Amino acid sequence: MMLYDALMEPRRRAPQRAGHRTTLRVPDDLARAAQELAGELGTTSNDAIIRLAEEGAVALERRRRAAQIASERRDAVARTELVDGLELPTPEELRAAMLSGRHEP
Amino acid sequence: MFPGNAYEQHLLQRAAAGDPVALTAPGVLEITYGLARKGASVATGLRWFTRLAVSELLVVTLPFDAAAAVVAGRLRAAQATPPTGARRGGSRAEQRAGWVLDLQIGACAWVHGHAIATHNRRDFAAIRDLIAALYPSTPPLAVTGPPDVA
Q1: Same domain, B13 and B82
Q2: Which of A7, A69, A96, B37 is in the most buried spot, having the most CB atoms within 10 Å?
Q3: Closest alpha carbon within chain B to A78
Q4: Domain boundary residue among B31, B46, B62?
Q5: Is B111 part of the contact surface with chain A (CB cutoff 8 Å)?
Q6: What residues of B are in contact with residue A59 (Cβ under 8 Å)?
């Protein structure tokens, strides 16, 4: 009876998507994650794989954007120019300046 | 943020979505100090927060690295004491210590490409403006209120 019930279950179909058709070899861990997600969402494993890939792409783009912004900011921090003829302070002046932060402004 | 409350739920949701909330290392210092100095009365709170911070799963801690240190130092030189005009609790020394910590938090978030979400928008808006004055051609520090998790 259970096999009959399973055969009579309407076949789930993934939502229609535009794009390039491809064949993939899916690692076991990813296949398991996709199956779990498919169960939660009531969709097919293939659809779940696409959703996981889309989430991953969004997360990757977010990380890239943050890294790009961070890179611009760090370049600005590192950009120091020493003007020709500029005199460095004496060792004593330098030491006093470095330790001045411990005193009230 | 408190175990089981809406903010912690927000953390969990962000982590599950692959976009964990970032804390700055100076921010972790501030929270840990506050919990640790209260001793036994919030010992479990300290343990909860420590596990949260060091797990690197639910939250990401942005390190206070060389670039952050340089920026924070320059910010402190530009504005050594907290901006006036706001009512503040604590002694003057405590207010200054808090301000230096805020400078470190702002600098750390900025160099790592992040924004700041805070109740203290006034002070962090001032820090945003100080950074913009020091590094005018760079993306500014975005400052928003805390996430709406109600």
Answers
A1: no
A2: A69
A3: B67
A4: B62
A5: yes
A6: 17-19
- Among A55, A78, A105, select the one facing B81 at the smallest CB separation: A105
For residue B22, is pLDDT > 90?
Answer: yes
State pLDDT tens for residues A25-57: 999 999 999 999 999 999 999 999 999 999 889
Query: Which of A70, A77, A105 lies at the smallest CB-CB distance from B113?
Result: A70
Would the pTM count as exceeding 0.80? no
3-state per-residue secondary structure call for chain B:
CCCCCHHHHHHHHHHHCCCCEEEEHHHHHHHHHHHHHCHHHHHHHHHHHHHHHHHCCCEEEECCCHHHHHHHHHHHHHCCCCCCCCCCCCCHHHHHHHHHHHHHHHHHHHHCCCCEECCCHHHHHHHHHHHHHHCCCCCCCCEECCCCCC
Q: Which residue out of B110, B128, B131, B141 would a mutagenesis test of the A interface target, given it has the greatest number of A Cβ atoms within 10 Å?
A: B110
Question: Which residue does chain B place closest to A77, by CA atoms?
Answer: B67
Instruction: Find the domain containing B21 and state its range.
Output: 1-62
For residues B39 and B76, membership in a common domain is answered with: no
Q: Least CA distance to A74: which residue of chain B?
A: B111
Does residue B46 sit in the same domain as residue B70?
no
Residues B86 and B55 in one domain: no
pLDDT score of B112:
96
Task: Based on the fold, state whether residues B98 and B43 are members of the same structural domain.
Answer: no
